Amino acid sequence: MLRVNEVWSAFDTRGENVTIAVLDSGVATDAHRSLNLADGGWQDFVGNRSAPMDNRNHGTITSGVLIGNETPDGTRFGVAPDATLIHGKVINGDGNARTTNVLQGVEWAIDHPQQPDVLLINVGHSRVYYERYIEAIERARAAGIYVVAPAGNEGVDGIATPGNIYSTLSVGATNASGAVEDYSVGNVVSTRAQWGETPIYEYDWPESYVVPTVVAPATTVSTAADGGFGRTSGTSFAAPHAAGVVALMQAASERHLKPGEIDRALLETAHHPGETPPDTRYGYGTVDAYDAVAAVADRPPYFEITKLKHDGPTEHRLGRNDPVRFSARVQNVGNVSDTQLVTISVDSERVGSRRLTLDGTETTTIRGERGIACSAPRTSSITVSTANATRSIPVDVCRN
């Protein structure tokens, strides 16, 4: 449904060189050897335990969705199995998370020596608007960390923090057929009424916005704390699917993507069944891993000649003394900057050149003028070449 396998194959990435921070109930690394943590990648904000553990199983399943390496039959199932994981335990054995502990976890992730690219705050305080989260999440985004959270399991008109904060990617849940689950939160948040004016003026939030932002699969086979594999569901299992896609997006780009760039790519490539997204069921739509990664993946520079034309006194018909005036439109169809030599030839004889530097997707037009010697009517040609492409145009000369 997410098209993750297509990403692995087409872009040759499974999340390598990307770090994901998870705030959840912990992770049972002793039971699942594939769920390795980075050095210094464990912190227990609940019981201050020095070794990774999970007395709720929630965080272990989350970690498996993100980076789980293999099921018993040898099939990869984590969205970004080659990503690096750090985990902060903020949910206790009863399934509750204190706001203070979660905020400590956010600060820990921001200040971690191996600063994460993605932060999944996999908790939900139901039916509340906790303003204390806003500053912490905005600080994370300012540090270049993309923040993901579950929308919540309170259904239509429900709400949960931090998934109701505009600067998080709020993720709703879909079932195996792609329909939104009944329990998945959907709501319209009035910024001024619920949060006051500060987010509007200080963080440029809109007057209102829709929760969820996107939806993702929520029913999954994943790791269990006892070393086995189990099936579970909820928006807190949709959220790691989306967070894993963000990790793949970062891995496919040689430069670090800013949170705003990820927002645009995810929202523009999400698939919505209706005509007027966003709405309170699907948000902007279902996350599509392949399209989202393709929108940000590095494409090598390629200078294409998209148009070549002659600007003579009559179309392609020149007299003995008329100069050949031409223009060529050159576009770098890759998204990486490059410098190339563009050459101009008349009848296979090089008559000029120009060195062009174009940023990714940038287009420019070059113009020139050249006389063509002739003793009898004939068809000549102008050719423009880059390191990647060649394009020619015929010119009738000595026809007058």
SSE order in H/E notation? HEEHEHEEHEEEEHHEEEEHHHEEEEEEEE
How many helices? The count is 9
CATH architecture verdict of the largest domain: 3-Layer(aba) Sandwich
What is the total number of structural domains? 2
Overall strand count: 21
Sheet/helix structural class: alpha/beta
Low-confidence stretches: none
CATH topology of the largest domain: Rossmann fold
Query: What is the approximate shape?
Result: elongated
Q: What spatial order of strands do you see in the largest sheet?
A: 2-3-1-4-6-8-11
Largest sheet: 7 strands, parallel
How far apart lie the N and C ends? 65 Å
CATH class of the largest domain, please?
Alpha Beta
What's the helical proportion of residues?
10-25%
**Mean pLDDT across all residues, rounded?**
90
CATH superfamily of the largest domain: Peptidase S8/S53 domain
Cα-based radius of gyration, to the nearest Å:
27 Å
What fraction of the residues are assigned to beta strands by DSSP? 25-35%
Structure, explained:
With 400 residues, this protein is of the alpha/beta class. The chain folds into two domains: 4-296, Peptidase S8/S53 domain (Rossmann fold), CATH 3.40.50; 303-397, Immunoglobulins (Immunoglobulin-like). The chain contains nine helices and 21 strands. It has helices at residues 4-11, 58-67, 99-111, 132-142, 191-195, 198-203, 235-252, 259-269, 289-296; strands at 19-24, 37-44, 84-89, 118-121, 125-126, 146-150, 160-161, 169-174, 187-190, 208-211, 214-217, 220-223, 229-232, 303-310, 317-318, 323-332, 338-346, 349-358, 363-371, 378-385, 390-397. The strands form six sheets. A seven-stranded parallel sheet has the order 2-3-1-4-6-8-11, with helices on both faces. Strands 15-21-20-17-18 form a five-stranded mixed sheet, with no helix packed on it. The chain has a three-stranded antiparallel sheet with strand order 14-16-19, with no helix packed on it. Strand 17 (338-346) and strand 18 form a beta hairpin.
